[in-house]
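re: ur question from earlier - yeah i can do the single chain one, its not a big deal. heres the input i used so u can compare w yours
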Amino acid sequence: MAEGRSRKKLTVEYPTYDATKPVYANQMVVQYMGSEFAIAFYAAFPPVLTGTDEERLAQASQIEKIPAICVARVVIPRERMPEIVEALAQNLERSKDPNASPTSG
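and the output i got, formated as tokens:
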């Protein structure tokens, strides 16, 4: 840093959730890449089977795989992961309490 300059601490302002469209994900892949984690979120839905029970069973037997669509990929610095894991753990515990209200942050 050049002589005579000082650092100013800035706070991060987070916009409301209305600014970002939520997407549904029921699958994920987590990768560790040295100094970062990459989390890919996917949506995978079983196909609609129609007809009688026998027809649906026949249709199901023909299915070899269900495609997953990547809806988001997030890369996170390794040093931030403990904070994220803790926040997820706290919210998971809160979700188990029937009297707890949803959080907004």
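The mean pLDDT is 90. not sure if urs matches, ping me
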